[in-house]
Design brief:
- The chain is of the alpha+beta class.
- The chain contains five helices and eleven strands; from the N terminus they run H-E-E-E-E-H-E-E-E-E-E-H-E-E-H-H.
- It has an eight-stranded antiparallel beta sheet.
- Strand 8 and strand 9 form a beta hairpin.
Length: 228
């Protein structure tokens, strides 16, 4: 009887372990690499301290506080929020609504952002006058020797400022891409922010840029030296 009792206890414990493990693995599989955890991670890149909710951090191994060379995020536009169970379809690209923006923070490698590079670099690599696009955007084809074959340049004039500039894929590659346009801006202390987005958002480029800038500003806190 003692042996039987012990055997039943062992079986019960094994059953409980299997149940718990099954639920844990099942939840992880269902999340598909996403997380709805909104705990703030303090990430240091160069002289910048970023406070980022875990559910905005794209890759699981990066969802931690500490130093990093780069931080990749994704958010739902225009809400500018990270993953939640309610937004699961959008993040899994199951619907065409609420597009996802992909953002990457890294230390600044170039002296100018994409807007600042228009005059000295891009302007000499494009065909003029270009084709009109949505929201006052002008599309320019790159020259064959530019090194940007398969891309076009989207330019939006901003009075008193360098123009809004983004590079967009063309052709079949663009049609298959979830975020066919790319732009980078400078934020924080020598920090570059590259963001990728669907081309259809170009019609709302002013609001898109403002939303990205506001999100970056909300994440940037004190410099690491000040934080210590």
């Amino acid at each position: 009887m003692t042996r039987v009792f012990k055997g039943l206890v062992v079986l019960a414990l094994l059953s409980l372990a299997v149940t718990v493990a099954g639920r844990w693995f099942g939840e992880r599989i269902a999340m598909g690499g996403h997380t709805d955890d909104i705990a703030i991670q303090a990430v240091v890149i160069g002289d910048n301290l970023l406070a980022v909710p875990a559910n905005m951090i794209r890759f699981e191994q990066a969802r931690r506080s500490g130093d990093a060379d780069r931080l990749d995020l994704y958010v739902r536009y225009p809400q500018m929020e990270g993953y939640t169970n309610a937004s699961r379809d959008a993040f899994n690209h199951a619907t065409g609504s609420s597009p996802i923006l992909f953002l990457g923070f890294s230390e600044q490698m170039m002296s100018r952002d994409m807007s600042g590079r228009f005059g000295p670099i891009y302007s000499s690599l494009i065909a003029r006058p270009g084709q009109p696009g949505p929201g006052g955007i002008t599309f320019h084809e790159f020259s064959e020797k530019s090194g940007y074959l398969g891309e076009k340049l989207a330019v939006g004039e901003r009075p008193g400022r360098d123009p809004f500039v983004a590079r967009c894929l063309t052709g079949a590659v663009a049609e298959k891409s979830l975020a066919s346009c790319e732009r980078d801006i400078l934020v924080g202390q020598r920090l570059s922010l590259t963001y990728r987005f669907p081309q259809r958002l170009l019609g709302d480029w002013q609001a898109l840029e403002a939303a990205v800038e506001a999100l970056a500003a909300s994440m940037l806190g004190d410099t690491p030296a000040q934080a210590r």
